[in-house]
Design a protein that fits this description.
The chain is mainly beta. The protein has helices at residues 2-20, 207-210, and strands at residues 25-32, 37-44, 49-57, 68-73, 79-84, 92-97, 103-108, 113-119, 124-129, 140-145, 150-156, 161-166, 172-177, 182-187, 192-198, 232-237, 243-248, 253-258, 263-269, 274-279, 285-290, 295-300, 305-311, 317-322, 328-333, 341-347, 352-359, 363-371. The protein is 6% helix and 50% strand.
Length: 372
Amino acid sequence: MMFLKITALLSSFIIFCSTNITAQDYYAYVAAESEDQVHLIHFNAETGEGAIAETIDVGTWPQENEGPHGVTVSADGKYWFVTIAHGMPYGQLWKYSTETNEVVDSVELGMFPASMDYNPSTGMVYVVNFNLHGDMEPSTLSVVDAETMMRVADIPVGIMPHGTRVSPSGNFAYHVSMMTDELYEVDARTLEVTRTLPLGKDAEQGSMHASMDHSNMNHNEMEIDHSPVEKPTWADPHPNKPLVYVAGNGSNEIIEVDTDNWEVTRRFDTAKGPYNLEVSHDGKLLVVTYKGEGAVGVWDLEKGEELAYIKNTRKVTHGVAISADNRFAFISVEGIGGEPGSVEIIDLKKMERADVIETGKQAGGIVFWKQE
């Protein structure tokens, strides 16, 4: 009898521990665009302090600023990728080992490759070529095999594409066209644009255009006389609902899109210049960076209400990456002039800033790596 009681107590203790253990160490990668560096950020939740664990120099031309812009991590956590935006003339995608932070391989892309995402279902990396320095003309979405680092496709898309994110199913990749106010959907299997959606408030009048099959469309002949209003800069799918959230950088709003019906369902008025955004992994919160105000907003998606507005320590707020346990949001802030950049860590339980970690100039692309 005594043995049974002790066994029961031990079982209860093990269950208690397994359900109450929380992560202590959090890691993220952030690109310092004006320094040609990528920093590995470490944050200790117990002490509430963070630091740069390692700085990795990227690029190939020491005398030139090559501009690391977007970063992402493979699904198994073994590799991280960074886009090098300022090529001669084309940019590149570089692959690094997370174990050693040493370069593994690279591949040439298009003009000013920017944001990207890794698809665990296909093992492909989707990179939009923002074409910042080129003419106002349609650009491409490059698709790269992450294992071989071979570019397998360049998909014609809109003007100044940005904010690439893959759906939870892995079936589609979404991004926005900044200068034509559109959301793009790309089929991850056929590598073709399947649908585009005008994001303006008169979007319902463009339903015919929105439902068009774009697989055979000549994008070089697409309409480019549009005067952008929404100027969307980011798109992020909901983890368990058929929804995509878009940052309307020009119209100061968050736009919710129903991907089943392919229509705009809600609009949230925001602070000035929403730039990047990310839905929490449980689908409850939306964290938005306000580039125009140097601040961060945390939204309740069910109610459509902003729960917190948190000012950053410097101007030009850029990217957001939420930890796997939904506890912290890692925010990159560029700074201005000769200021350093920073990563500001937001506690999503307390709805307040937990720490600020100074980085190289123009902190931009950021991705969460792991927690221990």
